[in-house]
Design a protein that fits this description.
Di-copper_centre_dom_sf, 3-stranded antiparallel sheet, alpha/beta, binds CU2-O2 cluster, 7-stranded mixed sheet, metal-binding, catechol oxidase activity, single chain, melanin biosynthesis, 23 helices
């Protein structure tokens, strides 16, 4: 790949609403298009337009003529100013065709041309989605970093008045070095009269929402088989969303709120309203709100139609399959829902992926259509010409309290399946001759008390320049400051005795809440459903005593702040090949700043649970594909072009019932497990990011 191909591909993530011939990279680079690429609006002015935008640039990148111009009629059904939803069947079908088109470009130069040609002819959100999926999956674009969605479409993530401040700042202060940071307010969506607002810092976190977008980008439901059919993707759909729920429920306990009530009845009013106060960049309107006590209705619109009764029928068929222990394909052939493959089959069938569902005609499209019904609750028959609310879009869905109620319901279906499986037995849980004798977690200062961890607010900033279309702001950096939860980094230390020859184990770390929102002790069955995975890694155990140390920042769940919000533009690109490799596709992962739940001022009590399992039962034989240096958050995101690197079902050992009465009894019965009391103390102060 030449540098200019790489550059061209990167530029197409910037200023998504502007024509492709305008300058990018802070006004320094322009793409030189063949005349035939200009849309009708500019067709007669190609010379004037291209001259205007090629003054003062450092680099002009010529774009090749296309061997065949694609017919884009399939995408016309979605206008350029409409909202694009991955939960909408028709939109997904369009996206699938577009991904197939992008994946099929014969070489890199033609891919650049195809992207440049299609960009101004398609809905910008659709384009950015399909383009990012193609970049993530084409073998020849491994080197191209995918710009974080919060930087491409910042308006989906931040309160809109900040853009006026940003444009003003950029227009009045020429040199980006002296521009101040504009402030994104905290807690702007509701007052404290609304109890759900206590969780706004979690739901509206930029890192949380961009993780969710990135996950769905890596695991699309439609498109070419090689893109969709990834190892254990259905199971990962279950597990990643299950972990979000566990984290959210624990976060609620920390804020004196009870667990989420699953949205199992679509025919009663929904008490939780939500007024998102963010703008859609395609049409410059705010996302519609949902009032409190809204009744959900059948959706009957030109762009989407779904009856509640249909969703209920699918729900009952899925539950019947779980009770019967098997699923049926369209020819009537039965596949058992066993303990290894069952959860993966259910995940693909419930989400649902039409490509991978065992029988999408019969089991339907339960989870996606739930999103649709909820997202159109304010205007189910389009009489007010309103588009969908935040639940219709993976970049914004996690902002709405109802997201967790709907996913709580979906998760409850998966749990019904898991509960039907036998409890884990001693052979599955144990690891003979290995004992964990001591566990501790301690923050990095020498006088810190062991097993007391700290959270606080931190003020950080991210560069929004790439997504600010049509403004001087795009010719420099615009930093927006925002306040988010943060935790003080800590180190785990475990003492492990190995009474045998040298061997390998998998170290699994979880925290389980000990009490609920009323300070009442939780049963093991509740604790296991609320267990938060913190980390998972392989350890080499020498004969005798071993000390295992691990930093919280190395977690297999999370990615660092810098990776979620890396700046855009040539000046920030690493030059050395190894660093460039690290810079690649790597935005999927839970935000490190939310690795720990908030805790509370008195110190919220958890069990810190550690288990070392037998690696010979965990290991996976990987295909001989190149290692991706960036795939560090594999617990939720898997590994690029590899198998999921742990043979056990996801969430092991807490994904199934356990043979003991409580956690203390369990760690007493199995030497390869240990636990200690852990306290998370929240410090209500704001610290500037160093
Ligand atoms: Cu991620 Cu419902 O699957 O939003």
């Amino acid at each position: 790949m030449t540098n200019t191909d790489l550059k061209a591909l990167e530029l197409l993530f910037q200023r998504p609403l502007e024509p492709v011939f305008t300058t990018r990279d802070q006004g320094k680079v322009v793409l030189e298009l063949p005349d035939s690429f200009y849309t009708d609006r500019y067709r007669n002015d190609t010379v004037a337009v291209s001259n205007r935008f090629s003054q003062d640039v450092d680099l002009k990148i010529p774009v090749q003529e296309l061997a065949n111009k694609p017919n884009l009629d399939f995408a016309k059904k979605l206008g350029r100013k409409n909202q694009f939803s991955l939960f909408n069947d028709r939109h997904r079908e369009i996206a699938s065709q577009l991904i197939t088109l992008f994946m099929g470009a014969p070489n890199l130069k033609q891919f650049v041309s195809l992207a440049a040609y299609t960009k101004d002819r398609l809905n910008p959100v659709l384009f950015q989605y399909a383009y990012a999926v193609a970049i993530a999956h084409r073998p020849d674009t491994r080197e191209v970093p995918i710009t974080n969605i919060s930087q491409v479409f910042p308006s989906n993530f931040v309160e809109p008045s900040v853009f006026r401040d940003a444009r003003q700042e950029a227009a009045t202060i020429g040199d980006s070095g002296e521009r101040v940071h504009v402030d994104i307010p905290r807690n702007y969506t509701a007052s404290d009269r609304e109890f759900e607002q206590r969780l706004a810092y979690f739901r509206e976190d930029i890192g949380v929402n961009s993780h969710h977008w990135h996950w769905h980008l890596v695991y699309p439901t439609t498109g070419p088989t090689e893109v969709v059919n990834k190892d254990r993707r259905g199971e990962l759909f279950y597990y990643m969303h299950h972990q979000i729920l566990a984290r959210y429920n624990v976060e609620r306990f920390c804020n004196n709120l009870k667990r989420v009530q699953p949205l199992s009845n679509l025919r009663v009013e929904v008490p939780e309203g939500y007024f998102p106060k963010i703008l859609s960049s395609v049409n410059n309107r705010t996302y519609p709100a949902r009032v409190s006590d809204q009744l959900l209705k059948d959706v009957d619109r030109e762009d989407a139609a779904i009856e509640i009764a249909e969703v209920e029928r699918w729900r009952d068929r899925v539950l019947a399959a779980i009770d019967q222990g098997f699923v049926e394909d369209p020819s009537g052939t039965r596949t058992p829902l066993d303990e290894v493959r069952g959860i993966d089959i259910l995940g693909n069938m419930i989400e649902a992926s039409p490509v991978l569902s065992i029988n999408s005609q019969f089991y339907g499209n339960l989870h996606n259509q739930g999103h649709t019904i909820i997202s159109f609750a304010h205007d189910p028959d389009a009489r007010h010409l309103e588009e969908f609310g935040v639940m219709g879009d993976v970049t914004t869905a996690m902002r709405d309290p109802i997201f967790y109620r709907w996913h709580g319901f979906i998760d409850s279906i998966f749990n019904k399946f898991k509960v039907r499986l036998d409890p884990y037995n001693a052979a599955q849980l144990g690891f003979d001759g290995v004992s964990v004798d001591y566990v501790e977690a301690k923050i990095g200062t020498s006088n810190a008390r062991p097993n007391t961890l700290i959270t606080y607010w931190q003020k950080s900033s991210a560069d929004l320049a790439a997504g600010l279309d049509f403004g001087p702001a795009a010719d420099g950096n615009i930093f927006a400051s925002f306040t988010h939860l943060q935790n003080a980094p800590f180190t785990y230390t475990f003492n492990v005795t190995n009474r045998g020859a040298r061997r390998t184990g998998t170290c699994r770390i979880f925290i389980c809440p000990k009490v609920d929102e009323r300070n009442q002790p939780l049963r093991l069955e509740d604790q296991r459903l609320l267990a938060i995975e913190m980390d998972k890694f392989t350890v080499e155990l020498l004969p005798g005593e071993n000390t295992v140390r691990r930093q919280s920042t190395e977690s297999s769940v999370a990615i660092p702040f810098e990776r979620s919000f890396r700046p855009i533009g040539a000046a920030y690109q690493p030059k050395a090949a190894d660093e460039l490799a690290r810079f690649r596709f790597c935005g999927c992962g839970w935000p490190q700043h939310l690795l720990l739940p908030k805790g509370n001022a008195q110190g919220m009590l958890f069990d810190l649970f550690v288990m070392i399992s037998d690696y010979s039962q965990d290991s996976v034989v990987q295909p001989n594909t190149p290692n991706d240096s960036c795939s560090t958050a594999y617990s939720f995101c898997g590994l690029k072009d590899k198998l999921y690197p742990d043979r056990r079902t996801m969430g092991f050992p807490f994904d199934r019932r356990l043979p003991n009465a409580n956690l203390t009894e369990m760690v007493g019965a199995f030497q390869n497990m240990a636990k200690t009391d852990l306290k998370i103390v929240f410090n209500d102060r704001v610290v500037d990011k160093p």
